[in-house]
Every structure is written in C-alpha cells, then in structure tokens.
Amino acid sequence: MTRRLRLAIPNKGRLVEPTVRLLRDAGLVFEAGERALMARVQNYDLDILFVRTNDIVEFVSDGVAELGITGLDLVAESGADVPQIKMLGYGRCRLTIAVPNDSPYRAAEDLAGLRVATSHLSLTRKFFEARSIPVNVIPVSGAAEVAPRLGLAEAIVDLVSTGSTMVVNGLRPIEEVFASEAVLLANSTALNQDGAVFAQVETMLSATLAARDRKYLMMNAPQAKAAELEDLLPGLESPSVIPLAHEGMIAIHAVVDADQVWSLLPRLKAAGASGILILPIEKLVS
Ligand code: AMP
User: Fold this and answer.
1) Domain-embedded: residue 246
2) Contact 32/91 with Cβ under 8 angstroms?
3) What pTM was computed for the model?
C-alpha cells in the first residue's frame, strides 16, 4: 500500500481522551485541535480523521478510512461485518436492561408484553427475540433513563459503566444484553490487500497496552535466596538472574503485573531482596 493509512477516531464523547492517549503513548506524534477534522501523524504513514463515534463503523466499512476505533456496541448495533483487529480494553460498558427500583420485574422474561425504551434498537430487539420474549421496543434518541418516569416504558436498555446514572434515576439493572469496549476495526478490502501494514498498527497498540499493565522489577539478593525469590517472580518466562561483583550476591530482574507490585514487595523483602527498583515499561512486544 503506497498511500497513507487513515484512522478514524471519535471527535467527541467519552472515547476521545483514552483513544488520543493510546495513540500518543504508542509514540505517534500529531496535533489534535478542538475543531480539527484531520491530523497528520508526523512520524508514521497515518492520517487521523476525527469523526462522530456513531459514524466510524460506516467510514471503515465503506473504505473512507482503512482503520477505525469505536465502541464494540456500535459495531454490533450496525450489524456491519467489519474485521475487528484488536479489543482495546478501555471504554468498557454494559448494555443493560433496567427497571424502576420499586417495580416487581426481576428478569427479562418478566417484561413480556411490556414496553422497553432504548436507543440501541437492533441489539435490544435481537436480545428479546433470541429469548422469545415479546416486548414493545420504544425508540428514544438518548436519555432512555427518564422514560419510565415519563410513563413511556416499563423498562429501559441502556449503556452502563459505573451504574451511577441508573442509581440517580431510581433504576435497578436486571440483565446484561451486551458487553462492550473500544475496538480497532479495519476495512476488509484494505486488510486483504496489505495485512502486514495492519499487523504493524496492531503490534504498536498491543505493545503499548501490554506495557501499561506491567512493571519491571530489579532487586539485589544473596545468591542463597535465588530459588525462593524466583518462586515469587514468574516474570514473562522466568526472571533474569545476574551475578554481582560482590561475591555471593545476585541481581534479579522480572516483569510483573502492575496491580501485583504492592502485594509482592513485602514478600520479596521477607525473602531477602533489597534495593528494589520498580520501573515503568515503555512497550512490551510478546
Ligand atoms: P459517546 O456517546 O460519544 O460519549 O460514546 C459512546 C460510546 O462510548 C458507546 O457507544 C460505548 O462504546 C462507550 N461507552 C463507554 N462507557 C459508556 C457509558 N457509561 N455510557 C455510554 N457509552 C459508554
């Protein structure tokens, strides 16, 4: 592929900040102005298009952009058969059925014959059809959470991450319809023509995401403690053990899960480690 790739990302909303942060952490250098429609990446053959989150699936399917980042819920809602290259682990949320706190409904089956307000029409219809529950789906363009209070519906189907919006609106979740997170999409024709370029972008983002979840630990210890410390430190494969100039002493280096670091430290110290350093990892290619 000789021309530059185009990557469509959201221009507004909750996926903007984590998406721009991921691309910058991946080392891409570009300017993202408030009103810019496009940014040229200065150090990679890529142009970034800033478009509505809702339009990204279509842009990628049609080949307006070769790559796109959006919510998996929007891909599923559109029904488009667009290749998903990588789940990105942020923008996590659940499309959830919720009912007013004081209502008697406990499960989706209890809603048979009732009205369900949502802006996620296709996923909602598919869910109830698959379970053979006849409901009347009421389309709303947003703010579904107020529909029960307005007497528009007995239940809603809406996206939830923390659940606080539902609590504020006196709603209680009863069942999950779909689990979503941000996803990297590719145009299928472009992908078939030059898979290697897409693999490169996938590696770039994967290595950046993987590095965020890990820390590099370095410590000194008496040689006699090596086996005990190695048991505590599985590392990527096994930890590196390096002899030190001081006879009988070693250095141990290991990659560990970031969220295990604080619980590991006292155990490492108790096992004889000293001078423990915790370092960030820039990129991790596995
Ligand atoms: P936006 O409406 O532009 O802020 O973005 C909507 C997209 O963000 C959705 O399609 C989801 O993929 C994702 N998302 C993540 N958490 C939530 C949430 N709590 N509510 C709505 N959308 C969310």
Assistant:
1) yes
2) no
3) 0.91
Q: What is the dihedral of CA 86, 92, 95, 100, to 10 degrees?
A: 180
CB 29 within 8 A of CB 41: yes
Residue 159 within any structural domain of the chain: yes
Among the listed residues 192, 185, 189, the one whose alpha carbon sits nearest the alpha carbon of residue 60: 185
285 lies in some domain: no
Identify whether residues 194 and 68 lie together within a single domain: yes
Residues 101 and 53 both lie in one domain: no
Mutation test of ligand 1: which of 14, 54, 181, 185 has the most ligand atoms closer than 8 Å to its C-beta? Answer: 14
Which regions in the chain score pLDDT beneath 70?
1-2, 235-236
CB within 6 Å of ligand 1 — which residues?
10, 12-15, 53, 71, 73-74, 91, 93, 159-161, 180
The token pair that represents 264 in the structure block: 């590991």
Q: What is the extent of the structural domain holding 219?
A: 214-280
For the chain, the domain total comes to 3
